[in-house]
Design a protein that fits this description.
5-stranded parallel sheet; about 50% helix; about 10% strand; elongated; single chain; about 200 residues
Length: about 200
């Protein structure tokens, strides 16, 4: 049995790997494998048991061996392919997606995510109002994580419109990030200062 696990929630994925494979399983790295390794991995038996438990990391990153995967779908071993990235557009994926189990482990979405982006958009035109919105999430939010979300939104803006204003905002956020990590000033004060000044950029 072959299964593919993917997604950014590695903790949940690892729990499921242990549930299926147990505590004692083989670990292989896909990029290090050769075509000649595949028959022994998928079809070969070990000295101690006929059924092997194997975790292969980033198997699909090795395009040469990934192309051979459909030949081994009927393996009697328990094999999990743990993929950092999984290209759902590839020919191999389309060929196997209905023949094996593919599980995606996503980290739960931050409930404050939309509000953070709302604060950022509001601050562009109305800094004081953005500060009032910030007060709602401050008790349950980390200022460094919040700044990271601001940066991700600014990067999206820059990707869609590479203007002077977008460049200045990114530079300002870079300075904010550095100040938060290198000064003893209350991080939230630094964030509020940035938000208040955003509408003047």
């Amino acid at each position: 049995m072959i299964q593919i696990f993917t997604g950014d929630n590695r903790v949940k994925a690892q729990e499921e790997i242990k549930r299926i494979l147990g505590d004692n399983y083989e670990v292989l790295d896909g990029p290090d494998l050769n075509l000649s390794d595949l028959p022994s991995i998928f079809l070969g038996a070990s000295l101690f048991t006929d059924k092997r438990h194997i975790l292969i990391r980033d198997f699909t990153a090795n395009k040469t061996i990934y192309a051979e995967l459909p030949k081994y779908l009927n393996t009697s071993h328990d094999i999990i392919l743990f993929e950092t990235k999984l290209d759902k557009r590839s020919t191999v994926y389309k060929d196997i997606k209905d023949k094996i189990t593919i599980k995606e482990f996503k980290s739960p979405e931050d409930p404050n995510l939309k509000l953070v982006f709302g604060i950022y958009r509001t601050a562009k035109t109305d800094g004081p109002r953005a500060i009032k919105m910030l007060e709602i999430i401050k008790p349950n939010e980390d200022p460094i994580k919040f700044t990271g979300l601001l940066i991700s939104q600014a990067l999206k803006d820059y990707a869609s419109n590479q203007g002077t204003k977008e460049k200045i905002i990114l530079k300002s956020l870079s300075k904010l990030d550095l100040a938060m990590k290198s000064t003893k000033i209350d991080p939230w004060l630094l964030v509020e200062s940035f938000l208040l000044g955003l509408s003047t950029i």
